[in-house]
Amino acid sequence: MAKKKPQSETPSLFDEEATSAPGAEEPAREGKTSQKIGRSETTAAPPASANAEELPSLPPGVPGLPADLDPSWLAALNPETRKPYWAELAKFVAEERKKATVFPPAAEVFNAFRYTPLNKVKVLLLGQDPYPGAGQAHGLCFSVRPGVRLPGSLRNIYQELEEDLGIKPVKHGYLVCWAKQGVLLLNACLTVREGAPNSHAGKGWEQFTDAAIRAVNAQPRTIVFLLWGAYAQKKIPLIDTRRHVILKSAHPSPLSAANGFLGSKPFSKVNAALIASGQEPIDWRLPENPEECHQSQQK
Questions:
Q1: Structural Rg of the chain based on CA atoms
Q2: What is the largest CA-CA distance in the chain?
Q3: pLDDT for res 43
Q4: pLDDT number for residue 54
Q5: Which of 9, 13, 153, 177 is the most exposed place for a label (fewest CB within 10 A)?
Q6: How many other C-beta atoms are found inside a 10 Å radius of the C-beta of residue 126?
Q7: Looking at 165-254, which runs of residues are DSSP E strands?
Q8: Rounded CA gap, 270 and 250, in Å?
Q9: Residue 245's beta-bridge partner residues?
Q10: Among 15, 68, 70, 129, which one carries the catalytic annotation?
Q11: Looking at residue 281, what DSSP letter applies?
């Protein structure tokens, strides 16, 4: 598919700003690691009905999806790039990057899909939008880069993990090891302006990520959906509750964690559901050295 992608479809939305945006040098290196994961650790081919050859060409200047995404995701999500909202979304994000700092850096916008191929998803954890602080977001919901102070929500997630499974918190907030085991760490909006939470809401990302949720819902195996907070729980109509497992609670934010997140035991419940459906449970332990996440093999 990448060979057929014309140069005019290379998007500023994804690639052009990756080497010039503030703080982009380190993300660019991480993006290369992610691309290796996407190419070398998955083998699934897209269904014939979703081949790019059968889709209409993109208009000039309108970006497609990064070619390094796993074929399972390209097959499911490429049709979204041919819909009118996609061109408007791409234009909006490109304009935002010209006049403000946007997170995550362009090379990492689609990292959730890079680290967790569609045909490997076991769990879908849904966030709202990326962290808006400098150096935090890298394309996985609730996760932050090594060396970045833990946000309040992630501290509460670690607290509940220890209460639930006795796993001591690590000092970093880099959750790539979870993603590589099949935990899709997906935000409903994939970009945000620095310092302005929800600033990219209502621009088209929700339509795109709803399509991703539907693609996960269509998988033949049981998927566990972790829906923390009222926003995430609005996505329940997209999920076949007869075939999949939904675990709901309050959001882990410091403003709401005490209202039902703390004490909810989501991690043990996820593993119980996976075992009951004949799947391997998630190893929720994180290495002290976050670089070990890139050395581990995708499960």
A1: 18
A2: 53
A3: 32
A4: 83
A5: 9
A6: 23
A7: 183-187, 192-193, 224-228, 245-249
A8: 16
A9: 224
A10: 129
A11: P
Q: Which of 24, 9, 284, 34 minimizes the C-alpha distance to 134?
A: 24
Residue 89, helix vs strand vs coil: helix
Q: Answer whether 182's CB lies under 8 Å from 176's CB.
A: no
**Whole-angstrom Cα distance, residue 193 to residue 145?**
18
Which residues of the chain are under the pLDDT cut of 50?
Answer: 1-12, 15-50, 52
Rounded CA-CA distance 135/133 in Å is 6
Q: Helices (H) and strands (E) in the chain — how many of each?
A: 10, 6
Distance, CA of 126 to CA of 190 (rounded, Å): 11
Q: Are 118 and 88 in contact (CB under 8 A)?
A: no
Tokens 């996760």 correspond to: 143
- Torsion angle of the four alpha carbons 288, 274, 261, 234, in this order, in degrees rounded to the nearest 10: 120
> Given the structure tokens 């998007």, which residue do they identify?
11
The conformation of residue 279, written as its DSSP 8-state character, comes to: -
- What's the confidence (pLDDT) of residue 20? 32
Active site residue 129: yes
